[in-house]
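Hi R.,

Here's the input for the adenosine-5'-diphosphate complex you asked about:
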Amino acid sequence: MKAVYPGSFDPMTYGHMDIIKRASEIFDELTVSVLNNVSKKALFSVEERVAILKEATKDMPNVRIDSFSGLLIDYAKANDIHVVVRGLRAITDFEYELQTAQTNRMLSKGAVDTMFLTTSLEYAYLSSSSVKEIAAFGGDISPCVPNFVADLINVKYNRA
Ligand code: ADP
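And here is the predicted structure with adenosine-5'-diphosphate in place:
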């Protein structure tokens, strides 16, 4: 069974990596796909985010990295994928995720369903936006992202 884990991944954190690892152990093939969302201002380009994910998952043979724009269900259909994986951290994620999952199910006429993995407790607080905020103010982001990602983030904030 194939699955897609879509997201902004701007940038990928240990929280994302945890979901990727666990989902890759459940599904035969996991495609992590970066959403090219033109309306959201990003720190990293889609190409940079793809490169980071590729490096971080290079030892996971059944994980594929890709990007997409437009509707997730169209992308899933084109790739013959019927399951979407998302991570749930806190109750605040729930309302948005519930609505998105139901919308995707309706739009795809039941062909695309969503499965949720709950965050590992040690990463429950982690989000890409908090990592960026910490880095922007010169804080230590080494507990949040792999070292090579921390270096790339610090370069963006001229703190390398
Ligand atoms: P989006 O903009 O689509 O929410 P994100 O890159 O912020 O993209 O997140 C992608 C997915 O990863 C979402 O399902 C989100 O809930 C999940 N996620 C993000 N951080 C964590 C974490 N620390 N633990 C578990 N899941 C997470």
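One thing worth noting: The CA atoms of residues 86 and 116 lie 5 Å apart.

Cheers,
M.
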